Amino acid sequence: MSIAARPRSSIWAYRFLIQNFAQRDLKSRFKGTLLGWAWSLMVPLATLTTYSLVFSVFFHSTAPNFGNGRTGFFAVWLLVGLIPWNFFLITILISMPTLLANGTLLQKVYFPSYVPVLGAALAILVQTLIECCILAVVLLVFGNIGPTWLLFPVWLALFVVFVTALALSLAIVNIHVRDLAQMVNVALTLLFFLTPIIYQISLVPTVWHGIPFQELVRLSPITDFVTSLRQLAYDLQEPDLTAWLQLLAWTAGAVALAYFVYQRYGLDIGESV
Amino acid sequence: MSSYAIRAENLSKRFWLNAERHTSLKARVVRGKLPRGHEFWALRDASFEIERGSTFGLVGQNGSGKSTTLKVLAGIYRPTSGSVVVDGRVSALLELGSGFHGDLTGRENIRLNGAILGLTGKQVDAAMDKILDFAGIGEFIDLPVKIYSSGMFVRLAFAIAVSLDPEILMVDEVIAVGDEEFQRKCFDHLFDLRKRGTTIVLVTHSLGLIRDMCDQAMWLEHGQIRKLGPAMEVADSYLADINEREVQAHQVSGGEESAANESKRLGSGEVRITSLEFLDGEGKPNPVLLAGAPCTIRMHYVAHEPVSHVIFGIGFLHESGANVSGPNSGRQGSWSLAPGSGYVDFVIDELLLQPATYRVSTAIVDRGHTYDYADREFDLHVRGRGNQEPGLTRMPGTFNDPVRVTQMAPTSASTLENLRAE
């Protein structure tokens, strides 16, 4: 048994530091670039345009109708799915090397290793919120607004906690297993196409050569989060209780994983990096 | 609040040393379970207490566990066993500027560092002017720190660490950087912090600093406490130990120096210095001489031909290259030497050199002609008895009591104080 010289503080006590890390991330990310902040919107916009062009124009994919009864618009429907996916993707990708990048700092001063990861996630959340505002404006233009929007903060809270917890676990394990980042990269590409973001889940064959594909796609937590956001923002339908419980379960699972990984591997980062 | 700022009990820290610290998944799959490597105890069973408001020094040779101890106290490392309780807000200065982000400006880095130390934005802003003033880097504060000179880095880092009002300050020998003026400013500030009741933990190789600043000190050797107690006593024992080691080391390797490297020698070579011998006050050969004591330097020579009008000279050079002194026998006339070997003694009543290692050159000349010149071929080790002055040599003299020339009103005295402060 040993007692370390560390303050017994909660995440709340480190809020200023987390905020500072987030500011640092935001400031340094676009420093020295020509368009600066505009880049944070250019990239998702380019993705949206490309996918819309390829799937809606070339492949003739269609989107379901808006919740208010209007004919569906593929780009808008896609945007609702891309926003949560991008938050998930970028948070994981940026968080994984962040402990290594802050290695010298972690060796010289004590602060919990989750701080830089939460800071990175916070910085990305800021961008995601801007994207959400743009989405809201677009949906307003289509007149697609309803009381289910009020559930958005609840959905967002669950999603942010889920993604951040997952990112923290991966970032810590990445310190000990350095090629995890490459593996995750590959896995994320696969996951993108196995999640109903650019297609409707109804297009997935229920069984194909004995493989229950639709069930498999439904198994992914990202599918649950994307589907429920589309329900409440696009379809203007309230996700049922089972869906909410499922989201809650995923979030709780991710937090439990992050807690375990942090307690087991995250306390000695200062000597492992 | 207890009277102790830091209390450590049976503190141990073990590291696993293996060649590959970071493993890839491939390695794990291919080789199965990883070997744990060798264990290494950087710190073993150390118990000590640091009183609130006192200054605590950590000494020891490189690799003795000083920095590990500091990192455990700062919370960066968790001890393998034992406990440490630190009561107060810690500001650790383990490596200057390590908490800086190159792309951010000095001002932004101050905010970041303040947050790391657990301060709120308001608290940092309140200290901002003080930091800017102390760092004194002017308009650079609003430029990215990656363009700073190393001196500016040091100034900013030190300014941050000491200005954010820490309750416990941990310093790892970083003050030895920066220009003379800034160093003095740092020390003044450390003294000031100490006066105000800040607990300071200092890792240093400078025994002078331990004596001047510290109340208590701990001497570590191979991760274990060799001595713990009043700073003066610990510094003296540590110094005595170093001296003893040095003497032993030179007795083992001694004699090798006498094999003069003929090829490197300058001069016509009719007569050569073969070796130098250092004799202490009692006339016994001793590779390490004591500062302030009498001693003799015996120059052994061999003359291959008869020579006349020769003058012997010795030059003492500090490691830094400074020529400290160069006595020669010219003032006492010159000698003629018959073929054969012999020696000339240079008798020193009181060795004025301060403790250090000096390179010694010898020369045998006849006015313009050089018979033999050994350029920095020998080493002279001078050790002290404690209580040393700074500098390369002592300056004998006495200070008389102050003599007042004019009288001054008390108000102008404080003006003078201000002037001095600037």
Question: Brief description of this entry?
Answer:
The complex is a heterodimer of chains A (273) and B (422). Chain A has 273 residues and is mostly helical.
Please specify the SSE layout and strand pairing.
The complex is a heterodimer of chains A (273) and B (422).
Chain A lengths: L1 E2 L11 H15 L8 H21 L15 H22 L2 H4 L1 H6 L5 H28 L10 H25 L3 H14 L19 H7 L1 H13 L7 H25 L3 H4 L1
Chain B lengths: L3 E14 L7 H7 L6 E14 L3 E5 L6 H8 L7 E6 L3 E4 L12 H11 L4 H15 L14 H14 L4 E5 L7 H16 L3 E5 L3 H7 L2 E6 L2 E7 H23 L17 E9 L8 E3 L4 E9 L3 E12 L4 E3 L9 E3 L2 E9 L7 E11 L2 E15 L26 H12 L1
Helix pairs in contact in B: 3-4, 4-5
Notable features of this structure?
heterodimer, A: 273 residues, mainly alpha, 12 helices, 67% helix, globular, B: 422 residues, alpha/beta, Rossmann fold, Coagulation Factor XIII, Chain A, domain 1, 2 domains, six-stranded mixed beta sheet, 9 helices, 18 strands, 27% helix
How would you describe this structure to a colleague?
The complex is a heterodimer of chains A (273) and B (422). With 273 residues, chain A is mostly helical. Helix content of chain A is 67%, strand content 1%. Chain A contains twelve helices and one strand. In chain A, helix 3 packs parallel to helix 7. The longest helix of chain A has 28 residues, at 114-141. Chain A is globular, with a radius of gyration of 20 Å. The mean pLDDT of chain A is 87. Chain B has two domains: 4-245, P-loop containing nucleotide triphosphate hydrolases (Rossmann fold, 3-Layer(aba) Sandwich); 258-383, abc- transporter (atp binding component) like domain (Coagulation Factor XIII, Chain A, domain 1). Chain B is 27% helix and 33% strand. Chain B contains nine helices and 18 strands. In chain B, helix 3 packs across helix 4 (121-135) and helix 4 (121-135) packs across helix 5 (150-163). The longest helix of chain B has 23 residues, at 231-253. Chain A binds chain B through residues 1-7, 13, 16-17, 19-21, 23-24, 27-28, 31-32, 104-111, 175-180, 183, 267-268, 270-272, and chain B through 6, 15, 21-26, 28, 71-86, 90, 92, 94-95, 98-99, 101, 103-104, 108, 111-112, 115-121. Strand 1 (2-3) of chain A pairs parallel with strand 4 of chain B.
